[in-house]
Specification:
heterodimer; A: 152 residues; mainly beta; Immunoglobulin-like; four-stranded antiparallel beta sheet; three-stranded antiparallel beta sheet; 14% helix; flat; B: 134 residues; four-stranded mixed beta sheet
Chain lengths: 152, 134
């Protein structure tokens, strides 16, 4: 249903839900500007943002840590907790004038607990294109095993 | 005409992001450091997951646009447990106040950080003109 609406923003045709939709767009763009403009953190507001996933044989932890030397990166494993820490070097140049400085720098440390046990001795870590990928193998007992049913 | 307006209302799809998206997917804004000295403007942009082949740098009419597609690294049979960041396309545009020597632009992408070196056009040096008398 189209109604003619007289609003503070001027007369015009609109649907009853148009003002709600417009409000939603305004809030979304405001949040986008707050989150996206900094872009450093995740929705959790910590650094680095991480994605954790699993398949049949492994758990995977992927952390976004752009612009760091692999030698400055520390990965340690205790029971079911993985800790990623390091230092993002300050790239502050001397004798220049800054227009913007949005990229986070300094030391960071973040731990994530994996829902089940994994083989801590066989964890692999790779750092490619600014993404640290940890591959955590599941122990054999955790993998689904088919049981044959005997018919008597 | 009321009928024209209703057509418009029904078909218009609002853009939810600051920059226009021309491909489907999430549009991300990369954080940047921009600084300059007397000769060169430097832009550093965090674009993790972007490979050099997926990076595009455009300078047109004084507007610099950097675009980089970061594909999802998750395998097709991986089940997500925690998802804090999406795959998507990084994009950001800047209006450059100074004239840039376009042939001398240098871009490097290392560890997911784009480093863009934009040398300024050399200012014309003032030339003294001697005045002849007589």
């Amino acid at each position: 249903m189209i109604v003619r609406q007289l609003s503070p923003w001027g007369p015009g045709w609109s649907t009853p839900t148009a003002s709600v939709a417009q409000m939603r767009r305004d809030i979304e763009s405001l949040i986008e500007r707050l989150n996206g403009a900094t872009g450093n953190g995740s929705a959790a507001g910590v650094f680095p943002p991480m994605n954790v996933s699993e398949d049949r044989d492994h758990y995977y932890v992927r952390a976004l840590i752009p612009g760091i030397d692999a030698s400055q990166l520390n990965v340690s494993v205790v029971h079911q907790t993985v800790t990623v820490s390091g230092v993002r070097q300050s790239s502050e140049e001397q004798g220049v004038s800054y227009h913007r400085k949005e990229r986070a720098e300094g030391p960071f440390s973040r731990s994530v607990t994996i829902p089940a046990a994994f083989d801590g001795a066989r964890v692999e870590a790779k750092y490619v294109d600014g993404i640290l990928t940890l591959t955590l193998p599941k122990p054999e007992a955790a993998k689904p095993r088919r049981v044959t049913v005997q018919a008597s | 005409m009321p009928t024209d307006k209703t057509q418009e209302l029904q078909t218009r799809e609002p853009l939810g992001t600051m920059t226009e998206a021309t491909r489907p997917g999430v549009l991300l804004t990369p954080p940047v450091d921009i600084f300059e000295d007397s000769n060169v403007i430097t832009v550093l942009a965090d674009m993790p997951g972007v490979q050099p082949g997926q990076l595009k740098i455009d300078l047109y009419d004084g507007v610099l646009t950097i675009t980089g597609h970061a594909a999802a690294r998750e395998g097709s049979n991986e089940v997500p447990i925690v998802g804090e960041y999406p795959a998507g396309t990084f994009q950001r545009s800047f209006t450059l106040s100074e004239a840039i020597n376009q042939e001398q632009i240098r871009a490097t992408l290392k560890h997911g950080v784009l480093s863009l070196r934009l040398p300024k056009v050399e200012r014309a040096k003032p030339r003294q003109i001697t005045i002849q008398t007589g």
